[in-house]
């Protein structure tokens, strides 16, 4: 596996490549990321994973500074999973001095997560479009756990006539049902036990029953979202950790 730091170097490495799959990530790889890598490996001749903790999608009081980072471990995991190129740029590479152009998916990006994390999806959409433009992948891979992110990226691709195909991989969960997330590392054992209330509530697929089961937790939102497919989505806070999850309500499209 080759590790590259600049867009120029990445473009040169991909200049004669075809059948490219891209997995955009912020690192701290777990089995959810491995599922994305495996899906990309199965469908493409060359797999690129980005490793970039994107400051533009963090709010002023969020966890940018303490977000888990271990590039050496992530590089080893990515290589073992069959990633061909790991793109690990500095922030100044993607947001150089004077940067002032942003992508905003207005309606989709301003509800649910967007309401509670203003500007979050502007950062997501901008970095994804930049990665799509640099890598020029045939396919890009995202997890169903971030259902609204998937919807935002799909809408951006459609609205801006980008040719990349968006692939969605089902949510990967631990044996106890908690959706895998890099932020799970923040949870103490007691907090993790409390966090299990979230997937158990969503598993009811009934908003009223789910809300009753979440009684006592700090709930940012719990509602049915008309994405494709429709989901019952929620965000809760357990201690200082904010967790999101969803369950698919419609039969998933093929």
Task: Briefly summarize what is shown.
With 254 residues, the chain is α/β, with parallel strands linked by helices.
Envelope shape: globular
> Pairing-aware structural class of the strands and helices?
alpha/beta
Low-confidence stretches: none
Strand content: 15-25%
* Order of H and E elements: EHEHEHEHHHHEHEHHHEEE
Overall mean confidence score, pLDDT: 96
SS summary, helix count: 11
Distance between the termini: 31 Å
What's the β-strand tally?
9
What is the helix fraction of residues, given as a range?
25-40%
Order the strands across the largest sheet as they lie in space.
1-4-3-2-5-6
Radius of gyration: 18 Å
Q: Major β-sheet, in short?
A: 6 strands, parallel
Comma- or semicolon-separated keywords:
254 residues; alpha/beta; six-stranded parallel β-sheet; three-stranded antiparallel β-sheet; 11 helices; globular
In terms of topology, how is this protein built?
Layout: E1 2-4, H1 7-14, E2 20-25, H2 31-43, E3 46-51, H3 71-80, E4 85-87, H4 91-94, H5 106-109, H6 113-116, H7 120-135, E5 139-143, H8 147-159, E6 165-169, H9 189-195, H10 197-202, H11 207-213, E7 218-225, E8 231-238, E9 241-248
Parallel strand pairs: 1-4, 2-3, 2-5, 3-4, 5-6
Antiparallel strand pairs: 7-8, 8-9
Helix pairs in contact: 7-8
Overview of this protein structure:
This protein is an alpha/beta fold and 254 residues long. Helix content is 36%, strand content 20%. It is built from 11 helices and 9 strands. The chain has helices at residues 7-14, 31-43, 71-80, 91-94, 106-109, 113-116, 120-135, 147-159, 189-195, 197-202, 207-213, and strands spanning 2-4, 20-25, 46-51, 85-87, 139-143, 165-169, 218-225, 231-238, 241-248. A 6-stranded parallel beta sheet has the order 1-4-3-2-5-6, with helices on both faces. The protein has a 3-stranded antiparallel beta sheet with strand order 7-8-9. Strand 2, helix 2 and strand 3 form a beta-alpha-beta unit. It is globular and about 55 Å long.
């Amino acid at each position: 596996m080759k590790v590259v730091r600049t867009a120029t170097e990445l473009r040169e490495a991909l200049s004669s490549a075809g059948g490219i799959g891209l997995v955009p990530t912020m690192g701290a790889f777990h089995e959810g990321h491995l599922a994305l890598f495996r899906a990309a490996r199965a469908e493409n001749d060359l797999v690129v994973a980005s490793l970039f903790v994107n400051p533009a999608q963090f709010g002023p009081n969020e966890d940018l500074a303490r977000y888990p980072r271990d590039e050496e471990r992530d590089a080893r995991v990515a290589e073992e999973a069959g990633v061909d190129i790991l793109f690990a740029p500095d922030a100044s590479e993607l947001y150089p001095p004077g940067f002032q152009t942003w992508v905003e998916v207005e309606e989709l990006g301003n509800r649910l997560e967007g309401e509670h994390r203003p500007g979050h999806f502007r950062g997501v959409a901008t970095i994804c479009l930049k990665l799509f433009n640099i890598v020029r992948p045939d396919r890009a891979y995202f997890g169903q756990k971030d259902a609204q992110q998937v919807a935002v990226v799909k809408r951006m691709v459609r609205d801006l006539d980008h040719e990349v195909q968006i692939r969605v991989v089902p949510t990967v969960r631990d044996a106890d049902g908690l959706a895998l997330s890099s932020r799970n590392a923040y949870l103490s054992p007691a907090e993790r036990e409390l966090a299990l209330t979230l997937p158990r509530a969503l598993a009811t697929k009934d908003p009223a029953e789910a809300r009753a089961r979440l009684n006592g937790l700090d709930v940012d939102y719990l509602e049915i979202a008309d994405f494709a497919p429709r989901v019952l989505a929620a965000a809760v806070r357990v201690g200082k950790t904010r967790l999101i999850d969803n369950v698919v309500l419609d039969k998933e499209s093929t």
